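(Structure overview)
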Amino acid sequence: MAADRVFRWRVIGGATILVFMILLAVRMGIIGLPGGGLGREGSRATGKTAPTTPPVEREVWMNIYQQGQKIGYAHRSAGPGGEGFRIQEEIFMQVRTMGVVQGIALRTENTLNKELALATFSFDLKSNLFAFHARGRVAGDRLLIDTRTAGEERRYEVPLKEPVRLSQGMFTGVAAARLAPGQEITIPIFDPMTMGSRPVKLTYVGEEMKTAQGKTIPLRKYAIDFMGARQYAWLDKEGDVVREEGMLGLALEKTSREDARSGVSGGAADLTDLASVAAGRKLEDPEGLQSLTVKLANVDVRPLALSGDRQCYDSGGLLTVRKERRGGLNPGRSGDLENRDVYMAATPFIQSSHPDVRFRVGEIVAGSAGDEEKARRIVAWVHGNIEKRPVLSVANAVETLKNRAGDCTEHAVLTAALARAAGVPAVMEAGLVYQRGRFYYHAWNAFWLPAWGGWVTADAALNQFPADVTHLRLVRGEAERQLDLMGVVGRIKLEIKDMSR
């Protein structure tokens, strides 16, 4: 029994890792570039457009801390490139997740046009098992992206509603905007790890004396709001970030090259535990529960997917989850799945059309009598054939199938890909699940099964079909939707109110 608990624990918290890495991507991007302006965007507070100035060669080194302990470093160089700016960045960290310390390296090379909008980008991530590579360029109102995973390259197009900025350039020209305390600007930021774009709001707080590199000097303090996650940055008169602090105990501090590359430790607190949420009471046999009601607090629910299917959320903050049953409330719902193509499509991370995925699922579902049996076989196969271990990477189905290892996110993307390849509509869900007396961030799936009346949850990592009612869905959809968890992690509180068996 103890071994089984350890086995299950090694996959819980994968959604925490993804959120942390998205957060890190944004945090790494607030090292300011020299000079520059806000281009067309200007200052929302003043209504003016700040002028751009020619960039000069510059580099910055920063230590990365977690709860005061150094876990890595970042190196940024910037200067003229093409018709605008060139930015290069390297990051290395040792991160503890689910009891395991892992190294992770990220490298980005980007160019911005004269107006500081994205022109081209490249992104590379390497960890103990996985690697992810993406290249992109803006062509008119579309972003053309080439990805390479497991040795295969694919191209995707992302429509652009407006010019996007990379996080690496979002402080460029802030000083030139001359914001007064309380004034703000909002910048759309593109995240290459999820292929999504979200707004980042920068608010000038005011001048503050702060110790940086052993000296107490006046610095300009900014608040950074990204999907509800609040961070703070302190800029010097040159526009460089010299100190930055935020959620999960993370902090960055400007330093020398020699100091940055020395003394990296992986002994900091476990990210999964830091992000977990107190349950307030112990749940005996959670898989035996038929319903669970919890009260949510301290969270903006507007971007979340709390209501629908087996979940109901009311205006008083109560979230009720009821376990699905075969032949449920709406049996036979086969023709009213809106946007069915969305839940059958191959995507950059759910590569359901890949030959390896299609070959494997052909073996798994051979002779199946209908979609339900296909879904059950897929869940059982993924659970039995993917080693349970935490992974720091951008989860995708092809590499998970190749490496046969991963946490809950790898299990979920592979399950979705196999299901879609088998002709069963499937989607990823992410939120909280009860384990060891607390709620942890987790990812799982839902299948569209008419015999069950619609969407049915399933958890391949925990081998549950349907998933138990302690799976509290917060978001549903592709990796981009998990950006909406940013405003939840480290803030949400919950209280168990009621349950039934």
Q: What stands out?
A: Residues 349 and 396 are 4 Å apart (CA to CA).
